[in-house]
Amino acid sequence: MSYGREDATIEPDFIEADAPMVATGVAAANTDGTFQDSGSRGTLDETVLETLKRDVVDINSRLKQVVYPHFPSFFSQCSDGMGAASDNDISANCDLWAPLAFIILYSLFVSHARSLFSSLFVSSWFVLLVMALHLRLTKPHQKVSLISYISISGYCLFPQVLNALLSQLLLPLAFHIGRENHWVVRILSFLQLVIMALCLMWSVAAVSWVTKSKTVIEIYPLALCFFGMAWLSTIL
């Protein structure tokens, strides 16, 4: 129907942006139509160096809780509150990146990157599995998974990595420098045994404290596994 005048220009309705979604890690729409990430960025949105740096920081913070405190005072008893916090921490934060890195470093140091590497790599994982099964069987009342026990045993492998580094790389250099002096060779040999003993007690103390292992039946198999790895890094 004509009204005798020109039709007015019809403008499209203005569509407002939807309300921002309140959710962690989901991009929310602003009023201007742009999107903003409301949560932390994932590994797909960051560089490889940032991811590696974050993983190293996480591993170091985990070592501060599990391994570092037990070097000066072996088999130190913890309070009940700290034990409960440690129990929850094991169940909530288990990862296999640190055990994988420690096993690779241990195998490289002991085998000198030769054909023995694959055997040491597989044997180390088998040792961690045996330790985890032992802890799982001796502590059926604890709600800790097998993977968590493998993770915590792998973190306690860190002193053995240091033992392998000192015994296979640094001390042989000192042997090469002072091999003409018999007293230097004897002192370095004794020092190698002392380092092995310290790292062994360090690993056993850490795994005993975190897993609340107090009896001989609980600690002895763990100490035997760590002793085998420490002895291999000393004699090979």
Automatic annotation (TrEMBL):
GO terms for biological process: endoplasmic reticulum to Golgi vesicle-mediated transport. It comes from Saccharomyces kudriavzevii (strain ATCC MYA-4449 / AS 2.2408 / CBS 8840 / NBRC 1802 / NCYC 2889). One of its GO terms (cellular component) is membrane. Belongs to the YIP1 family. The gene is SKDI07G0680. The keyword Amino-acid biosynthesis does not apply. This is YIP4-like protein. InterPro entries: Yip1/4-like (IPR045231). The chain crosses the membrane at residues 90-109, 116-135, 147-171, 183-205, 217-235.
